[in-house]
Each structure stands twice: as structure tokens, then as C-alpha cells.
Specification:
The structure is a single chain. The chain is an alpha/beta fold. The protein has a single domain, classed as 3-Layer(aba) Sandwich (Arginase, Chain A), CATH 3.40.800.10. The strands form three sheets. Strands 6-1-7-12-11-8-9-10 form an eight-stranded parallel beta sheet, with helices on both faces. The radius of gyration is 18 Å and the shape is globular. The relative contact order is 0.17. Bound molecules: manganese (II) ion (MN).
Amino acid sequence: MLHGDVPTLFEAPTAHGSQADIVLLGVPYEGILVADRHSQSPPEPRPPESFYARFGADEAPDAIRQASLIYSLEHAGGVAAELDFHTISENLEIVDAGNHTLESAEEVAEEAAGSGGITIALGGDHLVPLPLMRGKQKGKPEHIAVVVFDSHLDLHPAPPLWAGSQWRTLIEEECVRPEDMIIIGPRGVRQSTHEIEYARQHGVTVIPLQEIDDRGLSAVCEQFVARLESVDSVYISLDIDVVDPGFCPAQKYPDAAGLEPREILTMMRRATAVRPLAGFDLCCFSPRYDEGQRGALTAARFALEAVYAILRRRVLDLV
Ligand SMILES: [Mn+2]
């Protein structure tokens, strides 16, 4: 157990330090909130909650950990049907480093990367990749691509330290080059024209969900995977609102008719077959809107796929 009735993610051993093949961590950070249709609010004091103004990302890591019991590495070592029934714990050292602030999450990512490992992080809102990518690039500087699954572009110029401006901040501080950013799945009308103008001017690849419907998943995969051939590794960031709320209602910013979990798993697999995974985060999950833990189970499955990405290269000897 991590604390109380909350198990570690996948019942992995708790961490002593941040050295392992995979360091799991929670970052229960909720930043700037949507207060209403016209304004934002600091996280404290919280504005009145409504269908439009939703929060609870700070409750996400432990809720996902509870559902991750289904994928326990402990019960039988985690025998992976999708990977020729290899046993995860026989091939990888995986630890859960507990919950962290943005500041200490950056330190965990730096230490993990410095010793040749990666982090798999449960947010938190979508600011969470900012410290994780900074830490990764400090611990092991590499030419990385970032594959983002999100209904939104998150390319606003301001405010700083906001879950709507994090990619622009990371581009401007040269953590990632804009031409190595691929944003998959935008849909709906919660977008701004200046964000798509920025993407077009700077060469950020944007693949709206409609394009997947029109051209098919395989064609889209071929397109974005080709962009990964020039990089060392690929960081994947998954905003849960890219998923159809029918599969995962536990979202801060739900929008109807999204991607199905298996489509996302396929794209994660295709991306990490080309280049090693540099890190993974899952953000904007809010368990207070979940129904029967099916959203938490879906979220845990995405985190498991990130584990698979490392295991696959290990057992197939791709590294
Ligand atoms: Mn989003």
C-alpha cells in the first residue's frame, strides 16, 4: 500500500530513490481553473463547481492507482498477453515513487533519466508534462519528439504555468523543437485561432480527430511515425479528454464523440515501435465524474501501455 487504502500503481514496489527502468509517480497538481464561460480562477479558493467549471485532477493519481489493481504486477508478476506472455517483473524494474509536487516531480524525472530510466506520471492537470520534460532533458538531454493526444492545442502564449500554455513554454525554452511536436485528436470548439496560427507558423503537426475519420488510422499513423525517424526518443502526453467520454466520463473538459481507447493504444504502439519512449504522462482525469471506476480502469490501461512500450523493446531486443 502507498497510504491508507491506496495501493501503489500496478502494486509495484515503493521506490527508494528514483533509479529503476520505470519510475511511476503521481503529480496531484490542480492549477488555474475555469471559473465560468468568461473567466479563470486560481486553484484556491475554488470557484463554484458546475458542468462547465469542473475540477478534481488533484484526486486522480490515487483513484487510478486503485483501479490499477486489475493490472497488478504482484499477483502473477504481470504476464502480458499482448507481449507474447512475457512476465513484466522478470524483465523490468518498476517502482512507485508516490505523489509529488511539480518541483519534486522535476527532480524525480531528472534522476530517473540520469540513471537510464523513464517516468510514467499520473497528473494532475495538463501542466504536469512541463516539469517532467524539463527534468528528463536535464537528466539525459536528447533530441525528443512529443506526441500529444488531446482535444485541445494548449498553445496559448500566457499565462505561464498554465495547462493551456505548457507546450509553447516548452518550445520557447527549447526543451522540444516545434517541428518535433505532434498533437493528435483536437475536436470541438474549445480552441483559439491564435493557437492554430502559432502551430502553422512554427511547424507543429496537428492532426484533428476528423482527419483520422477521413483518412483512417493506419494512414495517419504512417504520417506521424515518419516524423519520428529523426529523433532519439518520443515523449507521450495523454490528456484524457481526447477519449470519448462514453469510455471515460472522468474528465475535467469533456467533449462528445472522441477517440476510442484502442485507437489511442494503437497509436502509442506505433510511435514507440519507431523510437524508445522518453516518458509518459496522463492528465486532466477527474475521478469525481467517473462512473463505476470505468474511467479509472481506462486510465490505468493507458499507463500499462507505456510500461508495454518499454517491455516490448526489451523483450524484442530493439534497444
Ligand atoms: Mn485537453
